[in-house]
Amino acid sequence: MSPWTRSLSAMRLVRPAQLVVLAALPLALLSPPPAQAARATSTVSVLTFNVCGHSAGCGGWAEREDAVVKRIVGARADVVAVQETWGVLDRLEQRLAPYGYAKVADSGNEGMFAKTSKLTPLTVSSIVPSCTYGRIYPGPEIDTSAWIAPEHTDGDGVVWTSRRGGPWSRYATTCVDQVVETAKNGQTVIAPGGRAGAAWALLRVTRTKKTYLFVSAHLSTGKNKVAGKRSKEAARLLAVTAPAAEGRPRVFAGDFNSSIQRGRDTVGRRFTKAGFKDAYTTTRARRGAKYNTATGYGRKPAVGGSHIDRVMLPRGASATRWEALVKIRGGKAVKPVPSDHAPVKVRIVLR
Question: How much is the pTM?
Answer without folding.
Answer: 0.80
